[in-house]
Every structure is written in structure tokens, then in C-alpha cells.
Amino acid sequence: MVSVVAVDGPAGSGKSSVCRGVATRLGYRYLDTGAMYRAMTWAVLKAGIDPDDAAAVAAYASRPLIASGTDPAAPTIKVDGTDVAEPVRDAAVTDAVSAVSAVPSVRERLVTIQRDQADHAVGAGIGIVVEGRDIGSVVLPAADLKIFLTADAATRALRRAREQAGGAPVGEQSVSATEAALSRRDAFDAGRAASPMTQADDAVVVDTTDLTLAEVIDLVCELVLERAS
Question: What EC designation does it have (predicted)?
């Protein structure tokens, strides 16, 4: 059995939708590590801490209780018992999450939780699909299968702009601004000292540019089944 599937990739590559779809189809648990970093960022902002003050963020990082539900049909994210699934997607959190995520003590704390979630699933005899930007390289380097999802910059920007618009039409200017923002975040995350975003050497690269969501889910599930045979 393939117990742990690690899925990495830049924003807009389709990680969340694909991972939830794969986990649902295979009866696996699902863990969105990006939501955990957003939750920590939300907590930092709510506490009135400057997200660019690494020392202050580090001093605070051990305080909030971050709890991530692993049901792919209804994933949850809570801070000290409060549901923050909606506020963690606010622009303020999006603008600050890279800075907070770059603080080593933040990553150390959340990586420990992420590994515990994976160990708990494996111990229960249930597979888990874990998505993020450093899962195959840092968090779960011994994962049974590592996937690196990607897509060209224009496609990723269009997807993210549509997501942020909530289904409303998006214009060329909005897509261009989103592409620039994604490029800045990718560069920041790839260049940070603590657990930079990177493709694991043994990851299978899946380019989602010209594939539908259903096609990508099919492909990843096939890879899981092939690895299990």
C-alpha cells in the first residue's frame, strides 16, 4: 500500500483540488499544510505582531494551537478552537504568509504537527495525501510517492484570479497582477533559508497546464496504484 503521498508545487498548480480529489477517491486522509501556515499568520496578525518582525513572530510561534482536520470532503483549520477557514484566505493573510512561513521556529513547530498527522494516519492503516511546498523534500522525505505539480505561469495566474474572484469574471489586468504576485511569492519561497520550496529529486513531475482537474486526479491515482503494485 502507498500510505503517504507528498504533493508539492507552486501556487495555482492545482494542489488543493487535486489532492482532495485523490484522497477522496482512494479513501485517504488529506492534509493542507499551506492552510496551517495561513492559520499561524492569521494568529500573528490578530495578536498585533508585525509579520516582518521575525524575532517577535518566533517568540509567539509556540502559543497558538493550530488544528487541521484531515477529511478531504470537509477539511477544517482552527486556531485555539476557532474556525478560521475563511479569514485565512483574506488579502492581509496572503500578503503576510510568506514572511511568517520563513521564520524557522514557525516551520519547526508546524512540521512537527504535519509529521504527527502523517504518522497517525499510517498507524491507523489509512493513507494520507499531504500537500505543500516542502513536503517531499523536508517534511516527509520518505513518502511512498512524491508528486510535483506545476503549470505555466499564465495558467496558474488565471486559476488563482478566478479563485479569488469567487466565480465572477476576471479581466486581463487582474490576471496580470495575480501573475506578478505569484511570481514574487514563488521567488521568496524558493529563496528562503528555512525549508525552501523545491522539487524533490525523486518526485514525479506532473504539468497540469493542458489537463482538466479530472484528468490530473486520474493521473495521480494511476501513479499511486502503479507504485503500490
Answer: 2.7.4.25
* Residue 224 β-bridge partners: none
Is the pLDDT at 167 greater than 80? The verdict is: no
Domains held by the chain: number: 1
Helix, strand or coil for residue 216?
helix
Domain enclosing residue 199, as ranges: 4-228
What CATH number is associated with residue 44? Answer: 3.40.50.300
Give the CA distances from residue 138 to residues 6, 32, 84, 107, 227, in Å, rounded to whole numbers and listed in that order.
10, 15, 26, 10, 21
Q: Is the pLDDT of residue 194 over 80?
A: no
Written as one string, the DSSP assignment of 32-57 is EHHHHHHHHHHHHHHTT--TT-HHHH
Closest listed residue to residue 62, CA positions, set 33, 18, 30, 103: 103
CA distances from residue 170 to 46, 159, 173, 177, 180 in whole angstroms, order as listed: 30, 10, 8, 11, 15
User: At 165, is the pLDDT very low, low, confident or very high (cuts 50, 70, 90)?
Assistant: low
pLDDT confidence of residue 158: 79
CA distances from 68 to 53, 63, 140, 213 (A): 26, 16, 17, 24
Backbone conformation region of residue 89, classed left if phi is above 0, alpha if psi is from -120 to 50, else beta: alpha
